[in-house]
Amino acid sequence: MIDVTCAIILWEDKVLVTQRSEKMSLSLKWEFPGGKIERGETAESCLHRELMEELNIQVKILRTLSPSSFDYGKFSINLIPFLVNYLSGEIILAEHETYKWLSRNELKDIDWAPADVPILEEFLKLNI
Ligand SMILES: Nc1nc2c([nH]c(=O)n2[C@H]2C[C@H](O)[C@@H](COP(=O)(O)OP(=O)(O)OP(=O)(O)O)O2)c(=O)[nH]1
Question: Where are the bilayer-spanning segments (predicted)?
Fold first, then answer.
């Protein structure tokens, strides 16, 4: 099981979502940005590192949501979500195809990586 962090990034009333590129696994699926936890790293430090590497942004962590385990067949992941506020940095994509800031209502309409679906559902039930 691979531990992966991801961030629900809030800015005003929008959430940042990123689309995986054609070259990546889960090609063209939408996800909450983040990545694999490296040896000796905490989930929080992984999240800050990945958001800087992949997007060039800094965030403030507010809280965690429930982890989502998903078996993709060739591998399985434990996806650990954090609710965060966007703080600073102009978005520069290192790997992703594209990104969007979406309102809560728009989040259901994109083609999510399967592991993200329970996380999205929990987020949509929160009163924020
Ligand atoms: N970062 C991120 N990864 C996710 C999400 N949902 C989901 O199934 N994943 C999967 C995709 C990848 O298999 C893995 C995260 O790997 P990664 O983004 O750090 O690495 P990667 O694509 O470079 O790795 P790989 O597929 O080439 O092995 O978790 C998500 O919301 N965010």
Answer: none
Contact yes or no for 86/9 (Cβ under 8 A): yes
Tokens of 45: 């430090």
Distance 32 CA to ligand 1 centre (A): 10
- Dist CA 67 CA 13 (whole Å): 24
**CA 44 centroid distance within chain:** 13
Q: Check residue 127 and give its pLDDT.
A: 82
CATH 1.10.490.10 for domain 2-125: no
Asked whether 24 lines ligand 1 (CB < 6 A), one says yes
Residue ranges of domains in the chain: 2-125
Distance CA 128, CA 124 (A): 8
Q: What number does the ligand 1 atom closest to the CA of 119 have?
A: 31
Q: Flag residues of the chain having pLDDT under 70.
A: none
Phi, psi of 119 (to 5 degrees): -70, -45
* pTM for this entry: 0.96
